[in-house]
Each structure stands twice: as C-alpha cells, then as structure tokens.
Amino acid sequence: MTPEATRSRNAVRRTALLLAAAVTGGWLLATPAEAAYGDTEFRGVSINNGKPIVLGTAGTVTVPVSAQIYDDSGGIETIDADLAGTFLEGPVGHNMTCVQTTSTVSTCTGTAILDPAYYSNDSPGPVGLRIFGYAYDGGQYLESTLYPQYENLPGRDALLLKETKLAAMNATPEPVRKGGTLTFTGRLTRPDWNTIEADGTKAVVGYPGQPVKLQFKKAGGTSYTTVRTVTSGTDGKLRTTATTSTSGTWRWSFAQNGTSAAATSAGDGVTQLKTAKLTVNAGPEPVAKGARLTVSGRLTRATTDAATTFTGYAGQSVKLQFRKSGSTTYTTVKTVSTNATGYLSTTATANAAGYWRWSYAGSSTVASVNAVGDGVSLR
Questions:
Q1: For the segment 216-249, what is each residue's pLDDT rounded down to a tens digit?
Q2: Which residues of 186-206 are buried (b: 16+ CB within 10 A; e: fewer)?
Q3: How far is residue 53's CA from residue 332's CA, in Å, rounded to a whole number?
C-alpha cells in the first residue's frame, strides 16, 4: 500500500472511531479522572517487544502490541485501541484480538502501523497504549497505560524516536605512516517532522551539539574501542584528528537519547604503512677526485605494525643520491634494486666532496624512507 493510500485509510478510520466515541460517551474527551467507568484494568502490556519505535522521514513501521486486561465480568466484548495517536489495525470495535486466559483476564494482541507523516517534532518520547470499549457485563471502560495508576506496570510505554543517521566515516590520508595523523569527517542527521519536502517526505536536517564517539577496531579484531568523543557542529558536521599506531577500521557512533535513536556509521578501513629502515656506507673515505666510490646499504621493513622486528625487503627500486658540500639539495645518480635480503651495492664516480644516501619512495604497504647521508671528502 502506498503512503497516500495508508494515510487515506487512516483518516477514514479516525473519523469512524471519533464518531463511535462521540455516540458512546465521548472517549477522546474523557480525562484520566473520568476514565474509571468500570473495573477494567491493565495487568500487563508489551509495546514493540519492549524496544524503541524508530521513525524516519517516510515509510511506515509496524508495531506489535499485546496486553493482559482484567475485568471481573470475565472478558472484553468490544475493544478499540490506539498507540501514539494511531489506531491499531482491524475493524471498529475489534482492532485487538482477545483470548480469555483466566476467568477474569483476557490477552489481547494487535498491530499499529505508525507513519511519520502524522508526527511533529513534539512527538518523540514515551508513548502508551489506550483502549476503549465494553466488557461482557455491559460496563464501559477507557484505560491508558500512561495513567498514573500504571506507573509501576512493566512495559507500560515505549519510546517513540526519530531515526538518526551517520554518514559513512571518511578517514584520510590512506594509507598512513606509523605515528601519522589521520583526519576524520562525517555528519549526524535526523528528520525534521515539522517540515515536509516537495515529495511528501519529512525533511532531513543536521543534528548539532550532540556527543558522537570516534571508535577504532584493530585489523583482525572483533570489537571497537572509543578513542574520543566529538560534539557535532553546525548542520551536524563532525571533524577530528588522531594519531595512528596500527592498521584497522574507524567509525562514528551515536548513543540513543530521549528523542533520537542510536546510529553507527559504516567503517573506513585504514592501512598503516610498515616502517622501513635504510642504511648507507660510501667508501673509501676520503677518495681521490674522479676515482670510483663504492656505495652499499640495506633496506629493511617492519614485520608488524609495532615495528619491533625487521626483515630485508627484496626486489625494491632504491635511488642513489648525492648532495654537494654546501648544498641543501640531493640529486639522483642512479636507481638500484635490492637483492633477496634487501642489500644494495653499486659504484659511482666521486667528482666532488659531499654526502651520499639511498632514497626509497615506498610501496603500497611500506613507508618511504631516506638513509642518513654519508659524507665523503676528496683528497
């Protein structure tokens, strides 16, 4: 059924029940003090299986309802029930199915279909079940689980909440170096039930001033831990930074409050580049101008994110670079590949005094690194 058809059906249903209420004593005009027509009362109730009722900008939510209803006459002849101002599904006078479970108690079940089209920004909060009808002895009843006498009745109400959404986490840069800074962005939104868009749905707006947790799960882990709490800014925007120590997945998490449901963003996996080390040794030192100089070294990479153990990094292209004494700029002389254990060795002509180093640009999994220059003078 389309939203328009649902709303039309509910409007007809409301009109019929309002007329019925007017004929039988003014149900909707009765105050709690006037409600005790007979001895009918709630003995138990369940609304949405004890869970919050969450509505978004469009679409309907089906809410199961059950109640144990006492009447000393032995049962319920007719019943009309509503939840949060919406009548339950079913015919007038019988929109809950009641089965007598003891000589004085009936168990009644029904379903409410709630539509955000009928609610405003004042609607979120506790909602209760209201029933009206006649018992077997002809006695009229009007009861609501929100009446004061049911204050201690378990399950007497359910929270009607706005649906909140967290835009997918975006963490940059990716990948990141160990100890590098990641920037996280996102947005927290919820419906504005007072504003209707051109397509008939309720508007979506940012939700500012709310605490949102930045959470992290290590690669291979099963649970998230909270790194810090960020307050959503104008239009619900989120932004913060954190230092990385290992690869894993980052997300935003918003906890339920009195008007809005909890929400969790999709996670963004970030790979931390493995730390690399690079050594250099140039000789002989000093060297005759124009003579051949041998430059060696080794490229290693960490075996884990913790960077406590390292191994040779084979088959990697590494640049041999030279900086003249008095200069601040290195120039590339040639490119050499590491052997099976990460070692490097080549020769170059020594035309000037200065500093020699190896430079590695990094890979998709290993960070870039430059060796500390080895100074060689001429003789």
A1: 999 999 999 999 999 999 999 999 999 999 999 9
A2: bbbbbbbbeeeeeeebbebeb
A3: 66
DSSP state of 10: H
Q: What predicted TM-score, i.e. pTM, was given to this entire model?
A: 0.82
CA distance 174 to 267: 14
Give dist(CA 102, CA 73) in Å, integer: 11
Query: Cα separation of 301 and 274, whole Å?
Result: 6
Strands 76-83 and 86-87 come out as antiparallel
Of 187, 217, 192, 220, residue with least CA distance to 204: 192
Single-letter amino acid code for the residue at 197 = E
Nearest to 250 by CA among 177, 180, 307, 185: 185
Rg (the chain; Cα; Å): 36
Residue 330 structure tokens: 């290195």
Phi first, then psi: give them for residue 148, nearest 5 degrees. Answer: -55, -35
Interval 72-111: pLDDT, tens: 988 899 999 999 999 999 999 999 999 999 999 999 999 9
